[in-house]
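Q: A reviewer asked whether we had any structural model of the full assembly, not just the individual parts. We don't, so I'm hoping you can provide one. Inputs are below.
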Amino acid sequence: MCGIAGLIHRGKSSNVGSELQGMLQALKHRGEDSTGYALYGDTDGKNFIMRFKVGENVGEGSSSIMEDVSVYDERKKIVDQYLAELGAKVLKEERTLPYSLRYEISYDKKDLLDFSQKIESIPGVEILSMGKSLEVIKDLGNAKAVCDRYSLDKVVGTHAIGHARMATESGVDIKSAHPFWGYPFSDVSVVHNGQLTNYWNNRRMLENKGMRFMSECDSELIAVYIAQKMKEGASLEEGMKASLTGLDGVFTYFVATKDSLGMAKDTMAAKPLVLYESDDLVAMGSEEIAIRSVLPQEIDTYDPFDGEVKVWQI
Amino acid sequence: MANLKNTEKKTKAQSMGMHSEVLTGRTQQKFFNPDEGENLYYFGTYDVDFNKRTELDVKEMTAPEANKEIDNLMSQGFGTIVIKNPQGKHSLGVGILNKLNLIFEGSLGYFGMGSCDGPTVRINGRVGWSCAENLMAGKVVIEKNAGSCFGAAIRGGDLICKGSVGARTGIDMKGGTIIIGGDAGAFTGFMMQRGRIIILGDVGINLGDSMYDGTIFIGGSIGSYGSDAVDAELTKSDQDWLTRKLKVAEIGENFDVSKMKKIVAGKKLWNYDNLEPTEKKGAI
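A: Here is a predicted structure for the entire assembly that you could use as a starting point for your response.
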C-alpha cells in the first residue's frame, strides 16, 4: 500500500508542516515504516538549503547496518572539506540527529550536478534535497514521530508533499523512503504510490545518460525520469505526461517544484487519489480522510480519471 | 440429504485402494425450500418503524463503534437514522441486512455501505472506493461524486450516483442496477456478469472489458471498447425501462434516452449461466 498527500496554497503561505503532518498521520494505516516530507518553506530565495544524511537510522525495524556515531562525524568532516573546495560557504548548520543534517549554503553556481556528485562520492552520504525553498525530511516511523523528531510542525510555506510508506520492494531505511529529490535539479521532489514494472530497463538507460540512483526503490525512478525530461528541455507538465507511457506499472504520484505542484495517474487508474480544488487551496491524498484533517467541513472532492495529469501554481 | 454412513457405493478413489475409510460426520449443506419460512429469515434483523427517527453523531466514533450503534438503534425499532459528521470515515454502514431508511449528512470514505441487503440510503456527500460493494438489495443514492470500484460485485438493488465516478464501476457485478449522472472512468463494467449500468455522461477506455453478460447504456462518448464488448440495438423496451428507471432514480430528467448506446457481451470469451440468489428470490 503506501499513502501520499499534498497541498498547495495559492496566493498565501500557511503552516504546511503541521498541515501535512495531519494529512499523513490520517494515512498511517497505509504504512508507517517510514514517513517523508517535502516542504516548500518561506525563504528569501538567496541561499541553498541542503538536507543530507551521513548515515542511516538503525533503530527498531530498520534494515540498515549498525554504524558507530564516530563514522558519521568523519563523514561530516569530509562533507565540510568538499564544500569548501567547491566554493560553497556554510552560513548555518543544524544537526538534528547524529545522521541527519541541515546546512544553509551560499553557492553561486547554477549547475548542481558536479556539486552533488562530489558530495555523494563520500560513502554513506546522500543529499536528501537541495533547493532554495525545498527541504526533504524523511525518517523511519509514522508522520507524527518524524514531525516531532525534526520539529516540522512550525514550518511555514506555500506547498508540500509527503508519503507514508509500507515497504514492499526495498528496505526499511531512509534511502528508500520518499520523497525523492529530483537530482540534480534544485527544488524538485516526488512521492509515489504504486509499483513500476520497467524500473531496471529505465534505470539502465538513465544511468547511461549520467543520472544517479541512490536506492533500489522503484519510486526513485519517477524523480530521475522527470529530472531527465526537464534536463532535455521539457516542462514539468510535459515530463509528467511523457511518464504515462514511459513508465509501466501502476502509479499515482505527485511532483513539486519551487512554485508548482502536479499529480499524475496511470492509464489504469489502479491507485487511489482524492482531490479537492478551490481558488486558494488544492489538497489531495490517497484517501479523503487525509484532506479532512485540514478541511473538516463538508467539501466537494473527486477522483481524477485514468491518465490524468494536473499542475497547479502557487 | 444423503446419509454418508449408509453409503455403500465406493468412490473411484476407494476402488483404486487410495483410502478405505467410510466418511462420517455432519454437513452444513442446506437445500432451498420456499415453503420453509426459516430460509427467508436473516440472523440479526429487526422490526423497525420508518416513522421512528433518530440522529447519530459519529464525529468522535470509530467505524466499528458507529456501525454497532446503528445496529443498536435498529434493535430499538428506529427505522430512520440520520448520521451526522461521517467526515470521510471508512466502512460506515456496512453489513446492514435490514429494511432501514439511512441518511448520511456528509461524505463517506472507502467501503461505505458494503455488504448490505435491504436498506434505503441517501448520502448527502461523496463516497470513496468500493461504495456498496456486494449490495444484495435496497437503494443507495449518492448526491455527489464516487471513487473507483463503485458497486463492485453487487447482486441486486439500485445504486445511484448523481455525480461522476472513478474507474472499474460495476466490476464483477452480478445483478442490480447502477446509474451514474455524470462521467465514469476506465474499465467500467469490467468482468460484469449480470445487471445493468447506465451512464448519462462520458465513459473512459476499455468499457465492458471481458464482460460475461449484462447490459451497459451510455449517454455520452466512449473512450474505447474493452475486449468482447459490442454494440447492440437499443429497443423500445430498453427505452421504456431506461425512462422508468431514471424517473425512479430522480436523475436525468428530460434526458433523451433514445440516443443512448447499448453495449453487451459478444460472448466470444466466456459462458455464464447460473441463477443468482436475488433471481431465485424473484422466482418464488
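A: Points you may want to mention in the reply: The CA atoms of residues 52 and 128 of chain A lie 5 Å apart. Chain A has a mean pLDDT of 93.
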